[in-house]
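Model it.
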Amino acid sequence: MKLTSEQVRHVAKLARLALSPEEEARFGAQLSNILDAVDTLAQVDTAGVPATAYVLPMPPHARADEVTGHLGTGAALANAPQAVGTSFAIPRVIE
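Modeled.
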């Protein structure tokens, strides 16, 4: 699918990009190639393929989810760069 320069300018405007004429031509060709590849994929018959099909067999989950013991404040804060009492200390973001 060959994109026109107007379509490329429209996409650039949506992305808030200022393109030079050379970039417009180069990116237009690249976008056209991408759309051609997507069009090729759209032509593949996937009617018999389930939505969650995988190319390789998926191993079963390693273990069932289980609730375990409490971590504890000391263990939770052990690797914290800074702590204040029982909380993580973080730098102020808004002054």
